[in-house]
């Protein structure tokens, strides 16, 4: 951890070191700015409820639907991740390219929403299992979240970025140079996820948690992704990682701040996951009859971890805006906001970082 040296380049402080802060910081650094990330939690820290990015699956299955801004961000991110995951590339080990099937128990008006994905197909009637009315298949990437976050941080540091650990009580502390003592920043970018609800100077009460809970299994034989969207609004998903671990989930509980995994939810997730994907069980030998479906006891030996995270949702979607802040000390700087990514922070990370960078460039031109 270090402070900023004197230089001609403009200095940008990015608040937050989750997937959104790290991706934004890298984009801004590559544009030619000096960048310092200030955060209270970093990727190499133990997992905590205060840092959502550790808990994500994560896969790239866009939920943008008819939201064109979101769709553009998600598509840009997919192309970036596809390139990063190419065989032999330096980030290859963070990703797994794999076939994905999405089953929907409800009718979908826009069944072609993901038609830009490689190998996209609408499922034929004879493939509609698990009570689904429709479904699609395509090729996508999954992201090994902890590995990827550490990769982003090391790439940022290797390119000359700086990091400073600190809890920011008010955005004016950053503008007044509290975290960069040699120089006040020319701009601040806010990527504080769920923390934005209580960050002084922003305190966005449109930000709220959608709690997710997952189980991490050791099942290297699973090499496909599968999701079931049920009529009751639940998702059941199977997300394998390159390492051989598999995340299964999930739930989405709005405004539930409970910070620990609930045992009865873990049991329900495993039960649903095994019905959707009996192949998870090491002893599964095929067949779709109820007696062939494994039970929770059959996977106990491969459970690595139970966990939960707070998706940083926001009424109105991701906040991508810029405004000028004047502090009590008389210091003025543009502040760019990039937070509120809900359940899609990975799959929109590079696209939202590009928009944040454009707003930063514009704001600094005017300043
Ligand atoms: C179970 C689960 C599954 C998910 N699956 C997927 C998926 O498959 N695909 C997908 O795209 N997304 C998925 N998500 C969503 C994704 O994880 C989030 O959208 C994303 O992690 C949000 O990242 P973030 O950087 O905004 O926030 P965070 O990761 O929470 O990072 C916030 C950063 O801000 C810092 N911070 C906050 N307040 C302050 C402060 N006052 N002072 C200093 N630092 C501060 C924190 O320390 C941290 O560094 C999932 C989430 C969950 C919980």
UniProtKB/TrEMBL annotation:
Binding sites annotated in the UniProt record for D-dopa: 237, 311, 343
Matching InterPro entries: DAO, FAD-dep_OxRdtase
Keywords annotated in UniProt: FAD, Flavoprotein, Oxidoreductase
Family of this protein: Belongs to the DAMOX/DASOX family.
GO terms under biological process: D-amino acid catabolic process
MF annotations from Gene Ontology: D-amino-acid oxidase activity; FAD binding
GO CC, any one term: cytoplasm
Pfam families reported for this sequence: DAO (PF01266)
Chain sites annotated for binding FAD: 52-53, 168, 192
Organism of derivation: Schizopora paradoxa
Cofactor: FAD
Domain FAD dependent oxidoreductase: residue ranges: 12-356
Transmembrane segments: none
UniProt keyword Flavoprotein present: yes
Name the record gives this protein: D-aspartate oxidase
Domain of life: Eukaryota
């Amino acid at each position: 951890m270090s402070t900023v040296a004197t230089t001609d380049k403009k200095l940008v402080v990015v608040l937050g070191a989750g997937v959104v802060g790290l991706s934004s910081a890298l984009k801004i650094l590559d544009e030619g700015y000096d960048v310092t990330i200030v955060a209270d939690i970093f990727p190499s820290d133990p997992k905590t409820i205060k840092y959502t990015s550790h808990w994500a699956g994560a896969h790239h299955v866009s939920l943008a639907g008819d939201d064109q801004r979101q769709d553009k961000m998600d598509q840009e991110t997919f192309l970036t991740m596809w390139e990063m995951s190419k065989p032999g590339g330096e980030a290859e080990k963070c990703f797994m390219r794999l076939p994905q099937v999405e089953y929907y128990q409800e009718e979908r008006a826009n069944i072609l929403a993901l038609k830009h994905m490689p190998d996209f197909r609408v499922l034929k009637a004879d493939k509609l299992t698990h009570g689904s009315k429709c479904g699609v298949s395509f090729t996508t990437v999954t992201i090994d979240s902890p590995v990827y976050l550490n990769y982003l941080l090391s790439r940022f540091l290797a390119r000359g970025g700086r990091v400073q650990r600190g809890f920011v009580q008010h955005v004016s502390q950053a503008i007044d140079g509290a975290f960069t003592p040699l120089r006040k920043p020319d701009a601040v970018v806010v990527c504080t996820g769920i923390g934005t609800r209580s960050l002084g100077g922003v305190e966005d009460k449109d930000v709220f948690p959608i709690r997710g809970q997952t189980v991490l299994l050791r099942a290297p034989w699973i090499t496909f992704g599968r999701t079931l969207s049920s009529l009751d609004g639940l998702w059941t998903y199977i997300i394998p990682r390159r390492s051989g671990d598999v995340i299964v989930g999930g739930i989405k509980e709005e405004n539930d701040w409970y910070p620990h995994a609930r045992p009865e939810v873990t049991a329900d997730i495993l039960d649903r996951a095994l019905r959707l994907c009996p192949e998870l069980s090491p002893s599964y030998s095929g067949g779709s009859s109820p007696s062939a479906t494994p039970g929770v006891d059959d996977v106990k030996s491969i459970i690595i971890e139970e966990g939960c995270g707070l998706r940083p949702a926001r009424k109105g979607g991701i906040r991508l805006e810029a405004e000028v802040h004047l502090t009590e000390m008389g210091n003025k700087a543009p502040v760019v906001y990039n937070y509120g990514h809900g359940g899609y922070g990975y799959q929109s990370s590079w696209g939202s970082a590009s928009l944040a960078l454009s707003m930063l460039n514009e704001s600094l031109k005017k300043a």
